[in-house]
Design goal:
Layout lengths: L2 H18 L5 E14 L18 E12 L10 E10 L7 E16 L4 E15 L18 E16 L2 E13 L10 E12 L22 E13 L11 E2 L2 E2 L6 E15 L2 E12 L28 E12 L3 E12 L7 E12 L2 E10 L3 E13 L3
Antiparallel strand pairs: 1-2, 1-8, 2-3, 3-4, 4-5, 5-6, 6-7, 7-8, 9-12, 9-18, 10-11, 12-13, 13-14, 14-15, 15-16, 16-17, 17-18
Amino acid sequence: MKPVLTFSIALLLSGAAFTARAGDFASAIDAQMRAGYVFNSNPVLMDRMEPDGLVTHTSLSWHLRYSFLRPQSGRTASVYQGIGFSATTFMQPRTVGTPLGVYVLQGAPIAALSDRLSLNYEWNFGATFGWQRTVKDQDISSNLVVGSSTNAYINLGLKLNYQPAAGIMVSGGIDLTHYSNGNTSWPNPGVNSIGGALGLTIIPGRRLFERPRSPFTSDPDFVRHFSCDLTAYGAWRKAYFPSEDAAFTAEGERALLPGHFGVAGFAVAPMIDLHPTFRTGISADLQWSENTGLDDYRVPDTYGEDVKFYKPPFLRQVSFGLSARAELVMPIFSINLGIGYVLAGPPETRRLYQTATLKTYIAGPLYLNIGYRMVEFRSPSNLMLGLGLTLGRK
């Protein structure tokens, strides 16, 4: 099964887990329009996407979303969670396509500025379909930015919410968006944009104003405690040959290896829960990558697309790293970010790495893990799709 398909299934399971636990909440329907400026992910690739040199710098998207609002009672905050659908254009449908998306979303007030106005954060995490993928051996006008028809979608935003009347909210803000296939196909420089969003939300049945309540305020009843995450994951990826051998380089760049390579990992992360919404700690990260440690195992006289390798010993393809972790904890969903360094493993793996993970708790301490690993803040490494367990979760 391809990783992008596995990712989509995991996303749908996350949405199903959320929906199954949100039946008693108030609901909201909202529509949004977003416009963004697209950065050149690669200084030369995007300039080549059209024979006349046009560059994709504009994105427009339309969103229809259905959310559940957690009821406000006692100290309960104004957290909302839901599912969204989108259609996006980059003004070049022939080379980029007009992708459609589905995603889970979560947001909450950072601060209530008045009874009717609040500053909110929101994240979206999902998949987009219908990209015009690269065609091998096509001329230079082929899409050199997107190597797969399905890509992951990540969006982070800040916005102001205003209630002009009970049951109605208007919003406006700024956001960052990233599209990528998780290095499962090539090319994959990613598509990144920054822009603004305008939206209108209807909350059927609400007849009274409710002052927004932030989940980040102090909670006198909360007791700091320790917990520990155990996570196992896997994926497939494209890879480059790490050798400097001239037979594997082209125009100063590393050569892409044919086929896909397996990845599997396990992480143990002791954490301290400092606040109901925040945890931090250190993670010990083990990862096996089928594409690492190959330099000494190439079959003689094999090159390029016909290159072959003897199978390296298992331990020659295992790396070990330590990473600092920080986690935003919300009902059902948590966002975990990490930055670390590989201390032991094949030479090409001993570098700085970063992780970004969506955890969806599906039954008690058990969670779905949908994550992404990068190297040195710029190079895609691999998806992290699996299951985890939080020991000591309260």
